[in-house]
Amino acid sequence: MRRELGERQVLAPDRPSTGDLARELAAVRAAVEHAGRLGVPVPAPARPKASELEAARTVVFGGVSGGATLGLAALAAGVPIGAAVLHEPAVGSLLPGLLAPMAAAFETGGVAAFGRTLYGDRWRPSDAPLDPGAVARDLAMFLRFEPAAPGPTPGPVIVTVGERSPDVRHRAAELLRRELGVTVRVLADCGHAAHLEAPAEFAARLLDAAGNLR
Predict the structure, then answer these.
(1) Does the residue 131 lie in any domain?
(2) pLDDT by residue (tens digit) across 140-181?
(3) pTM greater than 0.85 (yes/no)
(4) Into how many domains does the chain fold?
(5) Could you write out the DSSP letters of every residue in 72-103?
(6) Cβ–Cβ < 8 Å for 71, 47
(7) What is the DSSP letter of 192?
(8) Are strands 83-87 and 60-64 parallel, antiparallel or unpaired?
(9) Three-class SS of residue 151?
């Protein structure tokens, strides 16, 4: 996906995968603020913190699956994101059972079964986190997740859903549109694993969102 984004500054930080949403959001906030400093020249004004906030508001956040869920949570928590493209985040009690197949797969077959159930045939065991406990902690955290409306952003907040994803994912996206007011778009020729199956299409959505910040 980096290739499709061309010369733009791209930051893909590793998450701590603590299983604690507050700590994960603190890491997201730090990464967003760092990305803002990398991407925008910040002078030395009378109010440096305000300037840093303005720089962070130029950051476009892209996330798939758990990353999308953290992006949605970060927007609700007031992390200063400029725009976001979030592919198939969790939706909590808006659609109970959405993550049940993945939880069952993990319970019976561990990380490998979880990855195949969540992402499909394009996923490989080498795509799994190096920390063997990270998936268990993340899964528990996302099973507890409840979505809330994003705060105001300069650019769009877009939830995407894969054209080939099952109906339950399309229902989840529609519920987020109805309950939280986000924009929903369908990504062609992919399912849940947009980063593996449709990186160019996902990158194009990120670039469109960035263009709307100008």
Answers:
(1) yes
(2) 999 999 999 999 999 999 999 999 999 999 999 999 999 999
(3) yes
(4) 1
(5) HHHHHTT---SEEEEES---GGGSTTTTHHHH
(6) no
(7) S
(8) parallel
(9) coil
